[in-house]
């Protein structure tokens, strides 16, 4: 049977999040994680559905794409389908042709798992390598050290605080109380936690959200930020350590985070929290 490109209805998203969780395992190439659509869910369930694409054969979903932006699709491919030639060739066709409804006609990007046949075929079709990203990983088999600051798990009553720290950490952030509640209503947030760290004067100085893919599977840190007024005091390291501890409590086997390789400050922060770098990855792009 041919590979079918699909755009799921709202009621089909829960199953896709579950599939993404099943595809995660230690040692696998870093790819789209349940936490990625989980974080995107802040824009609402209808927008999450509109930004999702699937590729399937005989009703079996083999790949999932999330349009972080109209020009960027981030992908996960089922482990048994990473080298599936029929799937890879159809995906190349679908992301290359704007009329297929995946990527726009202007310059566009694909974030595919390293080692997948799709990457090789995209290069063959003239796609180019984009900037490098560094994934980092912390094994959670051993106890996680104390973060050294007070950390609070955020519930609905403190959503305003979590949103405020996010906006103070990232220029242009549009995260709000309403968007926190939209995110928390999504299926991925059942196995997620938001944390806020405080300094000695009880100022909220850093925040993070962590996403489990299920017991015994890698968990994701996305996003982590330090309030602009409190940087340079080790709070990024502290909240990252707290994030790892939260994932350990959720049953994750490891904690994973990704950052642009050019962001040497973020890479240093994660390393200081005990994370080790994995082989670099890169997106691919086509010109308009």
From TrEMBL:
Domain named N-acetyltransferase: residues: 149-288
One Pfam family matching this protein: Acetyltransf_1
InterPro entries: Acyl_CoA_acyltransferase, GNAT_dom
Gene3D superfamilies given in the database record: 3.40.630.30
GO MF term (any one): acyltransferase activity, transferring groups other than amino-acyl groups
Name assigned to this protein: N-acetyltransferase domain-containing protein
């Amino acid at each position: 049977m041919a590979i079918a490109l699909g755009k799921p209805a709202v009621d089909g998203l829960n199953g896709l999040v579950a599939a993404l969780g099943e595809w995660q395992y230690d040692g696998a190439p870093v790819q789209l994680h349940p936490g990625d659509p989980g974080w995107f869910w802040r824009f609402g369930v209808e927008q999450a559905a509109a930004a999702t694409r699937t590729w399937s054969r005989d009703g079996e979903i083999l790949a999932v794409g999330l349009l972080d932006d109209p020009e960027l699709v981030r992908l996960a491919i089922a482990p048994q389908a990473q080298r599936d030639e029929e799937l890879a060739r159809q995906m190349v066709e679908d992301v290359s042709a704007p009329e297929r409804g995946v990527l726009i006609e202007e310059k566009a990007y694909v974030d595919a798992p390293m080692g997948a046949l799709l990457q090789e075929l995209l290069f063959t079709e003239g796609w180019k390598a984009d900037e490098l990203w560094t994934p980092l990983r912390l094994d959670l088999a051993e106890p996680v050290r104390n973060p050294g600051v007070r950390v609070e798990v955020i519930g609905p009553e403190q959503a305003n605080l979590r949103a405020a720290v996010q906006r103070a950490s990232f220029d242009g952030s549009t995260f709000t109380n309403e968007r926190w509640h939209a995110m928390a209503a999504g299926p991925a947030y059942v196995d997620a936690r938001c944390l806020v760290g405080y300094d000695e004067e009880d100022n909220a100085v850093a925040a993070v959200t962590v996403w489990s893919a299920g017991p015994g599977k890698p968990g994701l840190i996305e996003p982590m930020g330090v309030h602009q007024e409190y940087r340079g005091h080790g709070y990024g390291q502290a909240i990252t350590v707290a994030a790892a501890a939260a994932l350990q409590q959720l049953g994750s086997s490891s904690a994973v985070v990704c950052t642009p390789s050019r962001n040497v400050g973020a890479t240093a922060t994660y390393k200081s929290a005990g994370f080790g770098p994995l082989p670099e990855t890169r997106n691919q792009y086509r010109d308009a």
